[in-house]
Amino acid sequence: MTASLIELLPVELLQPIFFASDYNIALLQASPRISARLSSDYVYGPVCDYYLIDVLDNRDQQTQAQTYIFASKWMTWTYVKSWILRAFEAQGCLCGMTPNKGCFDAQWPPNFENATDMVFSRSHLPRLAFIKGRIPRKLLHGPWKPEKVQFLRFLLWITSMTVDWRDQEVRQKAIDGRRQAILERNLEAVELFNHNRRLGKAATLSTVRFAVIEGGCDRSIVYYTMFTAQMWGSGISWECAELDQWCEQRMKNGDPKGLWLKTKLQELRAPSRVGKIYQGEGLGYKRLPGGELDQTAGDYDGGANDQLVVTENKWFQVSYSFSLFRRLLCW
Known about the structure:
50% helix; 4% strand
């Protein structure tokens, strides 16, 4: 296709035209030639500042632009980190404010390896919390390398980005991404899917069965998946002939995983019980749900490749608090 007159302009003219158009993303979408010629840090930085930090009058257009930006090939984890450091270093906090402007708990330098270690509150939000674009599909599937996990975790913890569940291809990417994380035995990636409803439905017995039979029963992954399935699923049944058969066969073969998993299933199948709860200053009794997992029961030393790793991360704390609140409402 023959290039248009504007596509033939020198970059020195294209750049100011793009800037003067208020960084109109439609110009880049309409012409791959223009998009390619404007591909430089000189353009990327102002575009990110404009759409990711400023609050524009047309919020729908801004959200669409945010989706486009994060889906772009140049928007890598390496670039995001470098841009954030440049954009917020002067203020010394991801909230974008200095202490005399309202910042009272500076989060700096950013913890890019594990964003959940950065503590924010409703009165002290990160500036990027107002980003409402869609999580790019490139972050919803494996291979689950550390940089991809860190990138996705950062977006989930710091921004308000969500998956576009109306897009069937994106939906399938997220479903397959969770399975890939289990098959790759990537506990960090599995934790993201287990604890974030923005990445899909809560774990179920079916998820546990897949992690055991198809995923090789990585005990850390199975334990966490069981825990979150029980926590999010109200009244979930843990009866499963396939898992029982798997346990029995492994026990017959002398594999300690068989007895370990059988112990976990027995714990989850325990009946409800009457327990003490505190209501105000008084002591009362309520029927409490069964199925409490004990991480020490049935544990064993399986060597470097078969250890039960249980860490209390921020996703766990947020999810657990919500689960307790929901149970109290149901009593």
